[in-house]
Amino acid sequence: MRFRLTPRETSFYDMFAASADNIVTGSKLLMELLGADSSARAEIAERMRAAEHAGDDATHAIFHQLNSSFITPFDREDIYALAGSLDDIMDFMEEAVDLVVLYQIEELPKGVEQQIEVLARAAELTAEAMPNLRTMTNLTEYWIEVNRLENQADQIHRKLLAHLFNGKYDAIEVLKLKQIVDVLEEAADAFEHVANTVETIAVKES
User: Fold this and answer.
1) DSSP 8-state class, residue 139
2) Contacting residues for 58 by C-beta, under 8 A, at least 6 apart
3) pTM for the predicted model, two decimal places
4) DSSP code of 9?
5) Which ranges form a coiled coil (predicted)?
6) I want to staple 123 with a disulfide (CB 3.0 to 4.6 A). Which of 21, 27, 89, 94 is the partner?
7) pLDDT, tens digit, for every residue of 24-70?
8) pLDDT tens digit sequence for 75-103
9) Where are the alpha helices (DSSP H) in the chain?
């Protein structure tokens, strides 16, 4: 760990942890969506929208703290990148739920549940990792596992696309479902961006 002679603003750690905890809430709402009928989905979407707004508030709080802090716990560009990537995850998850409701999807294709399970696991790992930024310990397994999960998400996504284009669905339905599975894939990518940023920070601080 790099030795510092100056004090550091430590509230960032709590704010990153709160942002990651909110992402766990979002992943649970995604899981809830899987088992819900069409009549219950609008209410789930409302709760997801509220969680996304809470995520925006958390991100703005980090940026405000960054702009008002002379000394930061690690490089400013890494704080921006980490906060932005965490925010992206919530945005993508909220978009996926909203699209399911707006498109009035009766039944999600087989494989979407695997996408969401990967996201839920990545959310848990991210929430567990954020407090460790304070000490920069026990992080290596986190970013290795999230990268593995993202590779798994890529495979699931490719299989889903193959399924959507096998002729079972009409063209309009394919367009709707493809947009949903693509957004879920973007959420998986955003989890990897968070993990890569954490790795960058850990390397700089070592």
Assistant:
1) -
2) 15, 18, 19, 22, 86, 87
3) 0.93
4) -
5) none
6) 27
7) 999 999 999 998 988 899 999 999 999 999 999 999 999 999 998 88
8) 999 999 999 999 999 999 999 999 999 99
9) 11-34, 38-68, 76-102, 112-129, 140-164, 171-205
